[in-house]
Amino acid sequence: MSAIGEVDEANSAIGVAVAALEPSELAGRLRRIQNEMFDLGADLATPFGTDFEQHALRIVPRQVERLEEEIDVMNAALEPLTSFILPGGSIAVALLHQARCVVRRAERAAVALHETVAVNADALAYLNRLSDHLFVSARHLAAAQDGDILWQPGATRDF
């Protein structure tokens, strides 16, 4: 089951990003998320219909809702996006973007798993919302620093 390994790698990527952060509310949220990632791995390791299902640790709707609430709070303080942004800036911002990409890969692996066995829909939703959470977290951190680095379409083309 590659989904479990992808979730483990995503958790490690989040840990690297946390290590690049100063102690903060964001770092605390990400540490909580790291703990939830182990819950998620346990959830994926016990698909529905197995003998161990009744004892399975499952992601619950409240965990997904909390991610959404945190996204809304961080987003409220940000300028609207007017362009794609480049994943960079400070090391911590770049690492949050990298963690987001690893979470997206974990989401794809979990969806692929769901095509073969029944997976908790809340686990899939959690991964989906987590990638958005990491994107907004990176933007939130960038806003407190030098701001987003905007994509400049065609900026390096020779005309």
Explained architecture:
- With 159 residues, the protein is mainly alpha-helical.
- It has a single domain, classed as Cobalamin adenosyltransferase-like (Hypothetical Protein Ta1238, Chain: A), CATH 1.20.1200.
- Helix 4 packs antiparallel against helix 5.
- The model has no long low-confidence stretch (mean pLDDT 93).
- The chain is built from 5 helices and 2 strands, in the order αααβααβ.
- Helices cover 64% and strands 3% of the residues.
Poorly predicted ranges: none
**Terminal CA distance:** 48 Å
- Shape annotation: globular
Helix content: 55-70%
Q: If you average the pLDDT, what whole number results? A: 93
CATH class: Mainly Alpha
Report the order of strands and helices. HHHEHHE
Indicate the structural class. mainly alpha
The proportion of residues in beta strands is under 5%
Number of domains: 1
**How many DSSP-defined strands?**
2
Rg estimate, integer Å: 17 Å
Note the main sheet.
Answer: 2 strands, antiparallel
Query: CATH H level: which superfamily?
Result: Cobalamin adenosyltransferase-like
What would CATH call the architecture?
A: Up-down Bundle
Can you list the strand order of the major beta sheet? 1-2
CATH topology: Hypothetical Protein Ta1238, Chain: A
Number of alpha- plus pi-helical segments: 5
